[in-house]
Amino acid sequence: MIRITLPKHLRTLAEVEGEVQLDVPGELTHAALLDALEAKFPVLRGTIRDHTTKQRRPFIRFFACEEDLSNEPTDTLLPADVVSGKEPYMIVGAMAGG
Question: pTM (2 decimals)?
Answer without folding.
Answer: 0.91
